[in-house]
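Lecture notes, part 5. Sequence design as translation. It can be helpful to think of inverse folding as translation between two languages: the language of shapes and the language of residues. The source text, in structure tokens, appears below.
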């Protein structure tokens, strides 16, 4: 199956996608900012998209309710939905998601610190600086695909925790406790090891093996043996729901901006990596400059992208070309005809 790019209304096109077909959906819709976004595209054309709702929040929520309803229908049983939004409507959207996906299928609320600028809380301002976007994650079922992600430890943490150096290998390590937590109630083995009779974390055979491999040490004679935990064997720190390490393109490098509200490729790579495997199908119904499609291409996922804006489609096609994705490698359709199934 080819990757697919559609120009048209997201709800109309989503309606034509089969049930349970896509493995992950990333929604980056208008945020209910009540403004129009304008900027110059790569070829000097004006990019313009409106986020104006004459009938207020109810009109916006009706639109989003339809998008979320179509999303749950076409998402596979093991799929996840990511909804990117901000303070303008995130509290209303969470309620819609709870109603449609179910409160119990809420997975995470990601706080993405999108910039460091304090411009909106300058002197005289009567608000705290608004620096973050919200990304809600919902599952369709508890069996959803999840690849846990890790971040590198900070230098301070490494210096403080992995503060010992192996004389032979010159590798950094920390000393860990070998006691069996919970003693006999947790089924830990009890035996004598290097002169100490107690509940241990591992059985005698494993302890002896670790000792022979120089992974168990006594720092001084007659002290309780400790485990050497090597830094090289650690995955890092499990990623939390506050993401401060991915800078917005707008702050990082103005040269890379092709579209207003363009998100960083690294943000989408993170979202795609934790929720899908190679070959899975990802849908972005508001794909703007095509950031999700580029990230899918980098990570060998298949994609469907939709945007109603002609300049967005041009921008995506140009961007894909720059990434060596030729027009014959994906299908492009402008959708006006009804009754086709994707
Ligand atoms: C926030 S931007 C997406 C930016 C994108 N994530 C990126 O990194 O470039 C929202 C996009 O939704 C599109 N859009 C708004 N309403 C739409 C609709 N009903 N159907 C399809 N696209 C729509 C706009 O044209 C705009 O490109």
């Amino acid at each position: 199956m080819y990757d697919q790019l559609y120009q048209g209304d997201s709800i109309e096109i989503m309606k034509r996608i089969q049930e349970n077909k896509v493995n992950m959906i990333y929604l980056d819709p208008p945020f209910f900012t009540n403004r129009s976004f304008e900027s110059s595209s790569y070829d000097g054309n004006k990019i313009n998209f409106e986020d104006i709702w004459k009938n207020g929040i109810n009109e916006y929520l009706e639109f989003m309710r339809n998008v979320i309803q179509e999303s749950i229908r076409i998402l596979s049983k093991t799929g996840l939905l990511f909804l990117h939004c901000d303070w303008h409507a995130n509290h209303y959207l969470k309620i819609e998601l709870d109603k449609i996906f179910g409160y119990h299928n809420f997975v995470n609320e990601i706080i993405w610190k999108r910039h460091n600028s304090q411009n909106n809380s300058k002197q005289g301002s009567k608000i705290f600086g608004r620096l973050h976007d919200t990304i809600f994650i919902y599952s369709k079922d508890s069996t959803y695909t999840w690849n846990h992600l890790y971040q590198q430890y900070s230098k301070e943490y490494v210096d403080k925790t992995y503060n010992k150096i192996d004389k032979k290998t010159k590798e950094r390590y920390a000393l860990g406790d070998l006691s069996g937590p919970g003693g006999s109630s947790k089924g830990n083995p009890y035996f004598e090891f290097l002169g100490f009779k107690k509940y241990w974390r591992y059985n005698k055979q494993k302890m002896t093996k670790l000792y022979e491999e120089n992974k168990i040490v006594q720092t001084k004679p007659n002290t309780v043996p400790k485990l050497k935990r090597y830094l090289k064997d650690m995955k890092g720190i499990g990623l939390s729901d506050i993401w401060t390490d991915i800078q917005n393109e707008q702050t990082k490098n103005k040269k890379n901006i092709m579209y207003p509200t363009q998100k960083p490729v690294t943000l989408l790579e993170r979202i795609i990596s934790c929720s899908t495997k190679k070959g899975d199908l990802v849908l972005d119904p508001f794909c703007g400059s095509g950031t999700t499609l580029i990230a899918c291409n980098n990570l060998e996922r298949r994609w469907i992208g939709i945007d109603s804006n002609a300049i967005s489609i041009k921008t995506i096609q140009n961007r894909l070309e720059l990434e060596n994705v030729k027009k014959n490698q994906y299908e492009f359709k402008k959708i006006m005809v009804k009754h086709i199934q994707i």
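The translated text above is only one of many valid answers, since several sequences can fold into similar shapes. Residues 56-74 form the longest helix (19 residues).
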